[in-house]
Each structure stands twice: as C-alpha cells, then as structure tokens.
Amino acid sequence: MSVRAEFSLPLEGRVAAQPTGGVASMAATFRSDAAPERAHPTPARSVPTLPSRGREDAAHAYAAAASVPDPEVPCVTIADLGILRSVEIENGVAVARVTPTYSGCPAVLAIELAVEAALREAGFEARVERVVSPPWTTDWITEEGRERLRAYGIAPPAKASNSVRALFGETDVACPKCGSHETSRVAEFGSTACKALYRCESCKEPFDYFKCI
Ligand SMILES: [Zn+2]
Asked: Ligand 1 centroid vs 155 CA: distance in angstroms?
C-alpha cells in the first residue's frame, strides 16, 4: 500500500547487485597494479560499499529525500506526490531521481535543492537528477497523499488521468470539507497553476481541486 515498499524493492535489488561485482573487480585491478611499487595501500573505500551497508544507506537516503515537503502543497511530501522516483547509492553518492509534476512548474528547482539539502543533512554526498520520461501523472499520488490533500482542504485529482472524461469532460469533484458532489468550477486556476478553484454548493465553501494531468 505504501509507495516506500514499491520503490525500495527494485532499489534494494539494484544496490545489492551492482556494487559487489564492480567493487570487487575494481579492488582486484587496483591491487595488482599497485603491488610492485607498494606506493598505494589497499583502498579503504571497499568497506562502505558492502552490500548490507549499501542497502541500509539507500534506505536511509530514501527516507531523507522522501520527507521533503512539496513547496506548493506542504501538507504532502514529494514521496506522497510520487515525484521522487528513486534514491540509489552510486559510488558513495546518494543519487535522487525526481520527475517534475509538469514541465515549467516553478517548484521543480526548489524541490531539487531541498532534496539535495536533505540528503546532505543526512550525511550523504548528494546529486539530484531530473527524470522527465515517463511524464508524471496525478495517478502517481499515493493513497496517503490523497488523504492528506483532502484533510488539508484540497480535493485530490480523480484517478485515471488518461481517460478522456478526466482530461476534457466535467470531472466529478467531491468537496474535501463535506464530501458533497454538488460542486462547480469557479476558475480554471486556483492558488497555483496545477489547481482549479471550485465551490461547494452544499456547504458553500470554495476549495482547490488538484487537476488531473
Ligand atoms: Zn462542501
């Protein structure tokens, strides 16, 4: 159910599989080359890349990056929104991959800087890579994320953004405050470009609807 499990499985597999072979052969090459002159001691860096430690580090780094809140909707984290794609330890550097919610979203740079800062604070050398394909869709928002949006007063996007109805038709938007489906769109843009302003006809409250993309 949680997105963490979804991402940590392939992530752990890769971390465990990748460094063992690479580091072992690297260390072997290094030793045979360096042995004649005895100039270089055996590199100590094989220690932090042991598979078990690597898995722990990757999980630790993922947790640090996953806790970064979305700058526009601080009630949800970037993991809740599904824009944090993966965090891996590559040659001792925590590499986080982030997919922007939509191209040109002004929050992208802020998110990337915040992820980098969170990883450094957790003790990692860090790099953030932007992954634009496949493009983010609101379907990647986790159930937890939807619940948090609702609690914050923002109607979460309807599921299945690839349906014609969701893209072009009138979407059935439930009021996040009273749950009524008697709602109408007031403006195409709400507090940010990715939200529309709605009004509930039952409780008369205006609210933001997180648009489907
Ligand atoms: Zn209402």
From this structure: 11
Query: Spelled out in words, what is the top-level CATH class assigned to the domain 3-130?
Result: alpha beta
User: pTM of the entire structure?
Assistant: 0.64
Give residue limits of the domains in the chain: 3-130, 154-210
The tens-digit pLDDT sequence of the chain (213 residues) is: 333 333 333 333 333 333 333 333 333 223 333 334 444 444 444 444 444 567 788 999 999 999 999 988 889 999 999 999 999 999 999 999 999 887 666 788 899 999 999 999 999 999 999 998 998 888 999 999 999 999 999 999 876 555 555 555 556 889 999 999 999 999 888 777 778 899 999 999 999 998 876
Among 210, 47, 36, 34, smallest CA distance to 138 is for 210
Question: Going by C-beta distance under 8 Å and a sequence separation of 6 or more, which residues neighbour residue 44?
Answer: none
Ligand 1 center–CA 162 separation, angstroms: 27
